[in-house]
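Practice problem 4.
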């Protein structure tokens, strides 16, 4: 495969630094480095400096935090998406944005190929590449982990030494985990976590305090919703990224958002991972609370029926597929009346709904729901015929059995 120019999703770490040099050597092509700031924390300029040392002339370090929150995380939470009952899709939802920007850069610089550092065992290779092909059907894709023989950290380090690739060796205890961080979460895999019976070490967690060490006094927060999205916290208007940052901080301080999961990867294997998603955990609880007040019963139930399919599409990498887009249109249409305020209580790892209100769109009618005198708003006698009609098929079947 003849390649002239390739855009590499580049983090500046060991793997992608080796990949950068390997692409130059193996394909004899120009490499364009692209680093996405999606809220992973840390200083990104060292990645730019390292790429420059490796002879890269075109380097993109793009701040995508607002786009990530606004166009990917928030639409996903309108669906209450959660994979296999526990995973809030923090890594999954970041990949389509990175793929999108990578293709945009490829078009801008006239590249004929894109490359990523995902391994041949994981989901990310699928997510990246489905995005590439959906957005640029004829693009050439290079996945070094499926081509080279650098199959261990030792081999990568040896290659780096041989080719004078700068590698930052951290002082002190090395993290035994493979980690992925962004504005929505941090994931942890590998090391002791490869034994599903082993409890995660406390010093692994980065975003949250242990629930038992969280404050003894609960924290109350109020979230304002407009069309299914949080627009303000405690009455203060905030951008989507700022909302996530604030909820991460508040949730983290109260030990909210830790999960330990064995999940089914799209490529066929089971994988054990731990996740910290404090802001997302709060968002899911609050969104369901405001929907409980403002959504029609059958619309809410239909959304719940569709949600596992929608979540699986994101997990498996089909964000750019026609079926995900179709589902998104239906989900977004359902959110027109999802307006109001939710009050939550955060306490020692728990998120509890303390109140919800919607001045203009609430479907809760106290005069009908009350256990007190309802002034004729609801005739209880009507329930008899309703029950008998709904029991008719069961009554017929019971007679047949006799």
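Answer key:
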């Amino acid at each position: 495969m003849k390649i002239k120019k390739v855009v590499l999703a580049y983090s500046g770490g060991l793997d992608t630094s080796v990949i950068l040099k390997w692409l130059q050597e193996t394909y004899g092509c120009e490499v364009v480095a692209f680093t996405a700031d999606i809220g992973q924390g840390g200083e990104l300029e060292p990645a730019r400096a390292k790429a420059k040392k490796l002879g890269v002339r075109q380097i993109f370090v793009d701040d995508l935090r607002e786009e990530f929150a606004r166009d990917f995380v928030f639409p996903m939470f309108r669906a209450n998406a959660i994979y296999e009952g526990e995973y809030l899709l923090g890594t999954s939802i970041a990949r389509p944005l990175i793929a999108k920007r990578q293709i945009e850069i490829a078009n801008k610089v006239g590249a004929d190929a894109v490359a990523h550092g995902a391994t041949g065992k994981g989901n990310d290779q699928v997510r990246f590449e489905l995005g590439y092909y959906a957005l640029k059907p004829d693009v050439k894709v290079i996945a070094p982990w499926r081509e080279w023989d650098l199959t261990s950290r030792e081999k990568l380090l040896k290659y780096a030494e041989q080719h004078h690739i700068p590698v930052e060796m951290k002082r002190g205890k090395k993290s035994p985990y493979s980690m992925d961080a962004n504005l929505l979460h941090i994931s942890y895999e590998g090391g002791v976590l490869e034994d599903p019976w082993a409890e995660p070490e406390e010093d692994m967690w980065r975003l949250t305090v242990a629930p038992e060490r969280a404050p003894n006094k609960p924290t109350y927060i109020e979230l304002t919703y407009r069309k299914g999205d949080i627009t303000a916290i405690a009455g203060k208007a905030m951008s989507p990224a700022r909302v996530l940052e604030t909820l991460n901080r508040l949730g983290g301080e109260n030990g909210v958002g830790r999960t330990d999961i064995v999940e089914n990867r799209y490529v066929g294997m089971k994988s054990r991972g731990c996740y910290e998603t404090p802001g997302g955990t709060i968002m899911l609880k609050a969104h369901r609370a405001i929907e409980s007040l403002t959504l029609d019963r059958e619309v809410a139930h239909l959304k719940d029926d569709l949600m596992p399919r929608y979540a699986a599409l994101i997990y498996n990498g089909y964000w750019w597929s026609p079926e995900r887009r179709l589902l998104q249109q239906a989900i977004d249409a359902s959110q027109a009346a999802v307006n109001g305020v939710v009050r939550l209580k955060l306490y020692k790892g728990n998120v509890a709904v303390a109140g919800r209100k919607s001045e203009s769109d609430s479907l809760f009618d106290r005069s009908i729901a009350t256990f007190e005198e309802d002034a004729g708003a609801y005739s209880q006698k009507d329930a008899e015929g309703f029950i008998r009609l709904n029991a008719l098929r069961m009554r017929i079947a019971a007679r047949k059995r006799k």
